[in-house]
Amino acid sequence: MTDTSSKPSEPSRDFVKQSSLYQEFLAEREEILRHKWIESERLGHDIGFERALLDWIRKHREAWRSARRSLPQTNPSHGSPMSSKESTAGQ
């Protein structure tokens, strides 16, 4: 008997990778890692992910999210701006 519950299926994994929530998570994570690098360089030592995360949330998250909301939405599978029909599909 094979246990498939521990591994998500390919279509399920693709769906997650294309979800807007996952894309937002990846973009935010990238910004936090950038902040970690900049602050670590400035201070002359590695500040660690947790400190960078908390510092970035306190200092930059709100402005970053506002800026992201003002950008046109893109279709994750095409990288092109989504039409209003595409962005409201499934609602």
Explain what the structure shows:
The protein is 65% helix and 4% strand. The protein has a domain at 18-71. It has 91 residues and is mainly α. It starts with 9 loop residues before the first helix and ends with a helix. The chain has a two-stranded antiparallel sheet. Helix 2 crosses helix 3 (49-59). The longest helix has 24 residues, at 20-43. It has helices at 10-18, 20-43, 49-59, 61-70, 84-88, and strands at residues 74-75, 80-81. A hairpin with a 4-residue loop joins strand 1 and strand 2.
Question: How are the secondary structure elements laid out?
Answer:
Blueprint: H1 10-18, H2 20-43, H3 49-59, H4 61-70, E1 74-75, E2 80-81, H5 84-88
Antiparallel strand pairs: 1-2
Helix pairs in contact: 2-3
